[in-house]
Amino acid sequence: MDMATGGGDAHLPPVDPLARLRVAAQAREAAGLRRTLRPRTPDHDGLIDLASNDYLGLSRDERLVEAAVRAAREWGAGSTGSRLVTGTTSLHAELEDRLRAFTGAAGALVLSSGYLANLAAVTALGAGGLVVSDAGNHASIIDGCRLSRARVTVTPHKDVEAVEKALADRDEEHALVVTDAVFSVDGDLAPLRELHEAAVRYGALLLVDEAHSIGVVGERGQGAVHAAGLAGHPSVVMTVTLSKALGSQGGAVLGAPEVMRALVDAGRPFIFDTGLAPSCAGSALAALDIVSDHPELPGRARRHALALAGAAADRGLGAVDPAAAVVPVVLGPPQAALAAAEVFAEHGVRVGCFRPPSVPSGRSCLRLTARANLGSDDLAVIAGALTAVAEMKVNV
Ligand SMILES: Cc1ncc(COP(=O)(O)O)c(C=O)c1O
User: Fold this and answer.
1) What pTM, to 2 d.p., does this model score?
2) Which of 92, 96, 158, 289 has a CB 3.0–4.6 Å from the CB of 108, allowing a cystine?
3) Strands of the sheet with 251-255, listed across from one edge
């Protein structure tokens, strides 16, 4: 250390530590990749909402809101600490029991978000082994892979042969195959049965993220693993979010008792995070009641997604058959996606606009998310907006 200058070098000019952030922000702006936070009103600014993940239209349902209020009155506004320190409320225990029964899993552990559920599952189950992850997986899975310190192989989208090869060629004793059930932007379904066969053949666990399929896929919305006949299989682990079709907030990992044990003992996002807020647990329980009492809701959301995809395809906007409620409309450059989102807003419809790094370069898109509670008037307005976007594309 230079004792005379107290450790600094008197000859270097002072550095502005924020300068590089300004330069990077300008570069993102020039590339059409600037993200802005905009205020919104409780009614989505009066626009038809095709941007949220409220697939069953439950987030504003009075029964969920009342259940949240009741839970907060009884247990408090926050859960006050990690469940390992402050204990598990009967509300959390009931939610885990209900999620387990709904999905057909042996056990469930609730965390405070779906993001943390993926971080916990991938790190606790992947550490010290091989993780094989689909190229289309959600950012929370990618981050889990990075944090796991496992060797990670990213396989091409839905390429079961590449998964098998990665499992067969490994030196590691244990392996984890991880996939979204329904991919969050493309809206397509993973080949779950084939992946499961591969996992079983090579002694691996299969982790399936049901974020976009719980409450939407399967006859009663029990998810893609259940629909594929894999529920309760000891080598299958699931993560779910409570924040989309179930209209609340939070997440869970579901699987065999050994998996639950590993997460409670070693799942850092469970151990070192304050437990799910009681109000969220309460409203998720109310959502599960509604989904059980109204088995028609998942089918309704899926039918609306098919209608949106059909309307896009009719206008040359190339949507594929959606597996659940997510309908992508690929525009290509980020500027085209931004312009198309603006056209939708002018027609009174709010849509998601996805640009890199949320999607690969050249695949910027709109994401239309169907809801069970869209009316025929809404669908007509959306069709008008799709027509205008198709015309905009031709005129670019
Ligand atoms: C596939 C997928 N997994 C996990 C998550 C994270 O869930 P949550 O929003 O509950 O943290 C999301 C949500 O954005 C997602 O799309």
Assistant:
1) 0.94
2) 96
3) 107-111, 251-255, 236-241, 205-209, 175-180, 130-134, 151-155
For residue 85, being part of any structural domain is answered with yes
Residues with CB under 6 A from ligand 1: 113-115, 118, 138, 140, 180, 184, 209, 211-212, 241, 243, 251
User: Does 164 reside within a domain?
Assistant: yes
Assigned token pair, 135: 């190229």
Last-in-domain residue among 260, 293, 326: 293
Encode pLDDT of 190-245 as tens digits.
999 999 999 999 999 999 999 999 999 999 999 999 999 999 999 999 999 999 99
Which stretches does DSSP call E strand in the chain?
48-50, 107-111, 130-134, 151-155, 175-180, 205-209, 236-241, 251-255, 326-332, 349-354, 364-369
139 C-alpha to center of ligand 1: Å? Answer: 8
239-297 pLDDT, tens digit per residue, is 999 999 999 999 999 999 999 999 999 999 999 999 999 999 999 999 999 999 999 99
Of 216, 213, 379, the C-alpha closest to 312 is: 379
Pair (253, 301) in one structural domain = no
> What residue's CA is closest to ligand 1, atom 8?
114
Provide the token pair at 255: 């699987």
**Nearest Cα residue to atom 15 of ligand 1:** 211
CA of 207 to the centre of ligand 1 (A): 14
Cβ atoms of 91 and 71 closer than 8 Å: yes
Q: How far is the CA of 391 from the centre of ligand 1 (A)?
A: 33
Let me know if residue 40 belongs to a domain: no
Q: Quote the domain boundaries for residue 152.
A: 62-293
Among 242, 271, 293, the domain-final residue is 293
Same domain, yes or no: 258 and 164:
yes
pLDDT value of position 1: 40
